[in-house]
User: Which sequence fits this backbone?
């Protein structure tokens, strides 16, 4: 698991913007403003998907501009991105608020995820060497099992997220990656609550062990079938417990 986390950290470090190569004062100001806007967008996405900003929370344009030292125009640009991704909604005379998913929207997302995540798993299996998934197979072994037994569902959710992000990163399909990234953001809170439904975490763990075994064996079609079955089962659990989950 440690190597999985190190790889994720290294990728984020490579993607981080640097100002060292910028020498002109004007360029530095522009890059700094853009970095502040990017950081604001990242923080808002993380806080919404982790439920730190729950549905219905009002986002104050002026407060965000002051907090992140960006212009209100930059805040509005961020709102446009968040709205497009389905994380907030902008209501006339009320401003921007964190979006609340309906049961129908969640079911629609699960039905779409079943197809797209299955496809992504198949493509990732085809695009990677068989030992590529060894670290995740280890993570879904004792670490994930102990997390569930100890009631540490946040740790288990983290392991799940590493798997999903690795599949997205290796499917080699930018459109598919973008669609899945958006859908996973919108369902992040639901997924965390679903894990706490009695028995669901262990069922999901066994599902993902089977998916990873198929991926390591290079059985792309079987991996896709198993992943689709996993998402379908999750949808059925949601339909049964939707009042608790939402």
Assistant:
């Amino acid at each position: 698991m440690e190597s999985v986390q190190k790889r994720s950290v290294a990728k984020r470090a490579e993607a981080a913007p640097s100002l060292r190569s910028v020498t002109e004062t004007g360029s530095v100001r522009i890059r700094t403003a853009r970095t502040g806007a990017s950081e604001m967008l990242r923080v808002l996405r993380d806080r919404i998907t982790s439920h730190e900003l729950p549905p219905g929370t009002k986002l104050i344009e002026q407060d965000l501009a002051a907090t992140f030292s960006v212009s209100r125009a930059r805040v509005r640009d961020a709102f446009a991105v968040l709205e497009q991704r389905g994380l907030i909604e902008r209501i006339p005379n009320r401003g921007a608020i964190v979006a609340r998913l309906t049961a129908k929207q969640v079911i629609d997302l699960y039905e779409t995820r079943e197809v797209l995540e299955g496809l992504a798993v198949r493509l990732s299996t085809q695009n990677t060497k068989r030992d590529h998934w060894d670290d995740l197979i280890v993570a879904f072994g004792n670490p994930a099992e102990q997390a569930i037994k100890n009631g540490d569902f946040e740790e288990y959710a983290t392991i799940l997220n590493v798997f999903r992000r690795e599949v997205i990163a290796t499917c080699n399909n930018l459109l598919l990656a973008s669609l899945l990234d958006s859908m996973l953001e919108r369902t992040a809170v639901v997924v965390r609550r679903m894990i706490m439904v009695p028995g669901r975490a262990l069922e999901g763990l066994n599902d993902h062990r089977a998916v990873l075994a198929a991926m390591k064996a290079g059985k792309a079609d079987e991996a896709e079938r198993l992943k689709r079955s996993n998402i379908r089962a999750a949808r059925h659990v949601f339909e049964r417990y939707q009042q608790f989950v939402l």
Notes: The chain has eleven helices and three strands. The CA atoms of residues 57 and 65 lie 17 Å apart. The longest helix spans residues 220-245.
